[in-house]
Design goal:
single chain; 224 residues; alpha+beta; Jelly Rolls; 6-stranded antiparallel beta sheet; 4-stranded antiparallel beta sheet; 5 helices; 21% helix; 30% strand
Length: 224
Amino acid sequence: MADSMEPGFRIMEKVLSPEECETLLRHLTTAAPNRSRAGARHLLALPPVAQLAHDSRLLSIAQRQLGKQVVPFHATLFDKSPTANWLVPWHQDTALPLKERFAAPDWGPWSQKAGVAYAHAPAWALSRVVALRVHLDTSTSENGPLRVVPGSHLLGVLEDETIAQVVSERDFTECLVARGGVLSMRPLLIHASSKVQAQTSRRVLHIEYADSLRLAPGIELAVA
């Protein structure tokens, strides 16, 4: 049975060893497609990332949230550092990569990223997704950690004005995760991050899982 994960997030420490993190970072530094200083997208085509995404440890974490069957469909590297530093405002993750465009209520607007079609999705589709954030560096208060508003994923897809109101009315949690730890989160969880304040990097491999690539007739997630 799937775990409702009422706060919308959970931290699991010591999932990967320091050696595994180092090995993965070497591959991401030398072989990641479309690599920039800020990271890289569409990484499931990279064998070490695909292998990690199908690792029993990560599958088990995703299965606790979604049920017995899970499939990874999207992987992104976020590489925040003093030389690639940015502020992420409060938001929800509502865009999904899709195999092809279609016309359906509550889907859109559409965009194209590196040849893959994306659309903002309705709450019913996003409820079938969980993201696992694999921390390749220790996340501290000084290197732009993720901040989340617990339980906000239960409010559905929100407009920007409503997100700002929710943030003003509720407390947020700073997610500090040691190297090798994994943070699981729901896409609709309201979250943000600040700029790096120290001379340390915060590299996170963000892998998304769904209970099926086929969300509905004619609606299928792309693997990217």
